[in-house]
Amino acid sequence: MSRKSGDGRFSTFTQWNRSLSIRSHRGTGGTGGSSTLGSGSTTGSSGRRGFSLASLSLRNHHQPELSRRLARLIKSENSLIGAHEAAGKERVSIATQLSEWGEQTGDDSISDVSDKVGVILSELGEQEDNYAHALDESRGVLKAIRNTEKSVQPSRDGKAKIADEIARLKAKEPETAKLVVLEQELVRAEAENLVAEAQLTNITRQKLKEAYQAEFLATIERAEKQTILARHGLRLLQLLDDTPVVPGDARVPFADAAQARQILNDAEDDLRDWRLESSLASFPRDQQDEISGANRNHQAAESTAPSSPAQTVVETRTRSSTLERNGAGGGGGTAAANNAKGAAIQGTAPTPAEVGA
Questions:
Q1: Does some domain include residue 123?
Q2: How is residue 16 annotated by DSSP?
Q3: CB atoms within 10 A of CB 42
């Protein structure tokens, strides 16, 4: 540790897992120290996003029409996340530079205060990084909608293709027996599409709410924790005596080193004591419970995500094959479509009996 004036006396504070100095991290192989002033996040993960070859994929250029807009949005979100990560890194780098500059001034007051302010700035950068991780999780939730849209597109295309073929035959060969077969296929396609569309609606509503609820909660956390840090940063600056001195007079020795350390202790305590529930106090009680519960169960919800609509469509296609076995005609096709519609409203696949009614 390259601190002056006895900082080594407070080495016992390392048990708090908190940095009292930016300079204490010099020589660890990085360009700057990383503050750990209670930087735990309730909405963001702690791991940094790793490099992925998926980012080099050309598949975004061939997205189905239905999912194309959301795919662009998700790609833009990735750029936003990178910007916040870069901002966090720059903040930590600036904090280190401030601390090192203050040390070389030869002024004990500036040296101590700049170092402690550097700790605050570094923690501001850590909060920015936590926010970027939370945005990345929110972006991951939006991908569930995109994937669902991609799985629904073939169902729409298949139904439209059969309908176009029926219209063509009615115009050219209205008496052909192929019309009956195509109409039965259209009934099956409509049943499959009804289920897929219902799944899309359900998942879109659920995941849209989940994604942006997580983002807004992360925004609240970042804003309030950075506000806490900024207030303690202002307290640190008040310890620096900027009263002009007459040339030749010496500055009064810095006597507030202990108070500066206490301010960092206070900042750590305030960050640790921060609770999301207190930020939601203005919400109705039922909304508080819903939001808090959704935040706590975010990771669990990811692991218990519903089966993809693509799988549901495949299951429905298998079940609706009973139309061929039962030889359903025009009237039966209408009943099958109605039964499938009822099942789709509930977001479930129709039973073989319903499809073949």
A1: yes
A2: G
A3: 17
Range of the domain at 75: 66-241+255-275
Going 312 to 314 to 318 to 323, the CA torsion angle's sign is: positive
Q: How many domains does the chain have?
A: 1
Enter the DSSP assignment of 17.
Answer: S
User: 132 and 85 in contact (C-beta within 8 Å)?
Assistant: yes
pLDDT in tens, the chain (357 residues): 344 444 433 333 334 445 677 666 555 444 444 555 655 555 544 455 554 544 455 444 556 677 788 999 999 999 999 999 999 999 999 999 999 999 999 899 999 999 999 999 999 999 999 999 999 999 999 999 999 998 888 888 889 999 999 998 888 888 888 888 888 899 998 998 899 899 999 999 999 999 999 999 999 999 999 999 999 999 999 999 988 888 888 888 889 999 999 999 999 999 999 998 887 877 787 787 778 777 766 655 555 555 444 444 334 333 344 334 444 444 444 444 455 445 444 444 444 344 343
Which residues neighbour 239 within 8 Å (Cβ) at sequence distance 6 or greater?
A: 109, 113, 256, 259, 260, 263
For the record, the structure tokens of 351 come out as: 């039973």
With respect to residue 44, please indicate whether it lies within any of the assigned structural domains: no
Q: Which helix (H) or strand (E) holds 308?
A: none
Asked if 74 and 139 count as a contact pair (C-beta separation under 8 A), the reply is yes
**Tokens 């009996």 — which residue?**
353
41 belongs to a structural domain: no
Which is nearest to 42 in space by CA: 206, 208, 211, 214?
214
Instruction: Please name the helix (run of DSSP H) or strand (run of DSSP E) that holds residue 64, with its range, or none.
Output: none
Token pair belonging to 284: 């109705």
pTM above 0.85, yes or no: no
